[in-house]
Amino acid sequence: MSNFWDTVELPNPVPENYREIVAINSIPLFETQIISEMVELAEDMMTSEGSEVWYNAMRHVPRGFTPGDDAIERHFVKQLEDGFVTNAWNLRNNEHYDTYEKMTGNTINKFRRIVELGGGCGDFCRFVRDMGFEGEYVIWDLPMVSRIQQVALADLDVYYTHHVPKPAPQTLFVATWSLSETPLEFRENLVKKLNPNNYLICYQHEFEDFSNTEYFSTWQGRQSLMYDQKSSYLCQ
Prior knowledge:
Layout: H1 2-6, H2 22-25, H3 36-48, H4 52-58, E1 77-79, E2 85-87, H5 88-104, E3 113-117, H6 123-130, E4 136-140, H7 143-152, E5 159-161, E6 171-176, H8 184-194, E7 198-204, E8 206-207, E9 210-211, H9 212-216, E10 222-225, E11 231-235
Parallel strand pairs: 3-4, 3-6, 4-5, 6-7
Antiparallel strand pairs: 1-2, 7-11, 8-9, 10-11
Helix pairs in contact: 3-5, 4-6, 5-6
């Protein structure tokens, strides 16, 4: 992926309609699909456990698009029951958040720090902040991607780094498909230096002929197949 970003030139500064940049929505750096299983989960939560905080986190806000022009934005928006409007990335992040807490019994808001490897457009960070997380949030990413996140999350308290963060107690490590797309040497360096004890990891079973299923079978924690049967959660 880093080789891809070596070939990309982003506008400087990154514009407010960053989701419309071809390099961003073609990878994509944010969830673009409305997935039925995630819609069903959200609608179940609306009737059983949806709080005011949850509704605020799930509500669609048109960040990253050209104001007054929904030609692109409308493809990512979903109206749920009772006319409540959300979007593809909130649905995805809701599943991540809910799956982690249910699989582990841990409360994300009780961690002192979150380190996210590969933060995309910052959508999980914003979702977690909207859900009430008050600790330190660190996004570890490539410099060019950090530029996008600094625009997307300009109103939030976030620390950006391009190096392995130092270990710290009560840290939740988050890697949604990012770690599983890195070379083995990178993974070994991460484990050695960050030494994560709690993590929310999503990984595709195979990546470029490498078996992530075999690799992550050596990690502690609970695993669960995702909707597509080609990826899994690993949570501890």
